[in-house]
Structures are given as C-alpha cells and as structure tokens.
Amino acid sequence: MTSEEQTVSLVDVLEEDEELEEEASAVLAGSDSDHCSYPQGYVKRQALYACNTCTPKGGQAAGVCLACSYKCHEGHDLFELYTKRNFRCDCGNKKFTDLQCKLCPEKEEENTGNKYSHNFFGVYCTCSRPYPDPDDQVEDEMIQCVICEDWLHGRHLGCVVPDCVELQEMICESCMNQHVFLWTYAAHLAGKSPSSLRKRLDKTHFYVTKTENSFQSTGLECQECAKQSSELRVEAEPDCRLKELEAIAQKRVQSGAVFWPSGWRSKLCSCSSCQTSLRESGLSFLLDESDTVLAYENKGKNNEQRQQGNDPLMSALDNLNRVQQLEIIHEYNDMKTELKDFLHRFAAEGKVVTPEDIRQFFEQQQSRKRGRVNTGQFYCT
Fold this sequence. Notes:
Elements: H1 3-14, H2 18-28, E1 43-51, E2 64-65, H3 66-71, E3 78-87, E4 142-144, E5 151-153, E6 169-171, H4 173-178, H5 181-189, H6 194-203, E7 208-211, E8 214-217, H7 223-228, E9 234-235, H8 241-248, E10 258-260, H9 272-280, H10 293-309, H11 312-318, H12 322-349, H13 355-374
Antiparallel strand pairs: 1-2, 1-3, 4-5, 6-10, 7-8, 8-9
C-alpha cells in the first residue's frame, strides 16, 4: 500500500460522517465491549469477529465477541462479521491452540450450537471473495441474507435491488430453494409496501368448509369469485394461513433473491403445524420480529442515547452558560482539525503513530490552551 493510499484511508476515517458513526453505534452499542458474552450462552444477536491470526484458513472456524476482539485479539488480523444470531463466543476454546481468553478463560472446548460459514475465513457471497476485494473495482453493496446470514454482492443476487433496501430483509435464492414454502409467501408478501400488504391481506377472505373429517378451503378473494369457481378445493388445516395462500396458487417466478417489506414476519402463519415445521427447519426465528437486524440496531441506538444522557461531560456542559458552551465547542473543533492535520503528516511520510507521539500532541494542546488563557483569548469560570 502506498503512502498516498494510507493518507486517503486515515483522512477518510477521520472525516466519517454522522451516518456512518450512527451505523457503528447501532452495531456496537448493542453488544458489550467490556465483558465476554460467553456466560450469556447463545446470544440472540451480537457483533462478531473472526481472527485470521489465531484461526487462519485451513483450521477450524471460530468467532469472538466484541469485548474479546478488543481485549484478547488487539493487533490481530480480524474479519468483521457484523452480527450473527444465536452464537456463543469461542475465544480461548480448543480452536485457539495458543491463546487463552483474558476475560472468561473457563469455557467448554466447543460450542456445538454455533453455526459457521466461509465468512469466518474472510470471504463472502456466492463468489467467495473478500470484502473489500482488492481485485474488484466495481462499486457494489453487500446485503446480508436473513437465513444463512452470508453477505452477497447486489449484482450476484439474481434480482433487482430495491430502493430503501435498509428497511427490507433479503433471503438469498439458495435459502429460498432450500425452504420452498417461502416461495408461496413471496408470491403474496414480497415486493409490496407495508401499506399495500395490509390492504391485500385485509381484502383476502378464505372460505373454509368441513367435509367429513377434513377442512377444505377455496382460497379465493371474494364471495363472488367463490360462486364462479367451485372446482378449487384444497385440504387445509383450520386457520393455517400458509395452506390458504397455497390454495390461491398465485404465480411468481421462483428465481433470484427475494426482498421482504417491513413487518412481513408478522404475516407468516403461526399455527401449531407451521410452528413445528419452522422449528424442525431451524427457522423459528422468522416468527420473532425482535430477531431482525433493524431491531438490534435500534436497541443499540437506544443504549447509546441512554449512555449519552448519563455522560458526566454532557451534564457538565448543561450547567454552563451559552458563551462557555460555544467556547468549549470551538476548542473541540480546533483540536479535531489539528489532530487530523497531525495524523495526515504521519500518513504522508509513511510513519507509524506511536503512543509517545499522541502524548506529545496532547501536551502541545494543553500548552496552547494555557497560552490562550494568559492572553485572554479563552476563559472559563
């Protein structure tokens, strides 16, 4: 990597906009950065990392929690996995031959309930390439599948990526074909706005009649159509929404990934038969709207806001008058600009920033601040 590329990288990091900062807060604030998550068991959803230094390709896949990535794997080559569901931290178990967890050393040899993929070795998508990919110059977004939780390039999904993709969930074609009942739901739920989805399902009426010991459903949308078409009769479990949708037999092209609108999980059938099928397929989480990444991110944002609300510095600022607040903000912005210039010089020269360099920088800041106080350019009461 050239010094010019390093300069761009450092400046880019320093100039991250509020949207990126909020995204990072959403992902990381939902996880504990100080304590290993292992004692919590299989955590419903958490930020995860894989360590290429400790568990390189060719060995066993392993994942570590946010806190362990900081405390046990500092300076290691880490793969950021974003979030995964129902995972227990592996740090220091038998997959790590030369490392003991500093935060929670007493662990079982293996977490048999964990699920792994090629993501844990730093490759993603059906193309099995790293991200970012140094050999791929095409700008493309990566989107995570709800079921397998792999990350896929938008151009490899086999479908058009919709607008506002961050408000929707995606299931890749491989998972759709593995769980074929999802195509039935897709024909009625996918590709529709939440409002149109509600209207459509409110309009749909299902007429179920009992014949001997079985239930039959016309699966038609109105009484007039039911009178006109008496030939459609499909056996169905009482109140089984999936069977009713199958009876309608609405056609859809069964190829490519499927994007699902907000709230689609609440429209899935939760009858006893469907619950059993989902449980046997390992898909019970589809009935849980709090399982979504969006719910996790909102939890992280709420945690961050609560922490900021309890921040002693913010409380102290609230007790200052307007002039004092503006002076402190001005000082902060000056320091941020000077820090950016300071790091920029190191990057341009290809030098490594040491702790001693940072210490000297802040000593200079303190000296300049004292000088401004003495000249009357800055004051505080």
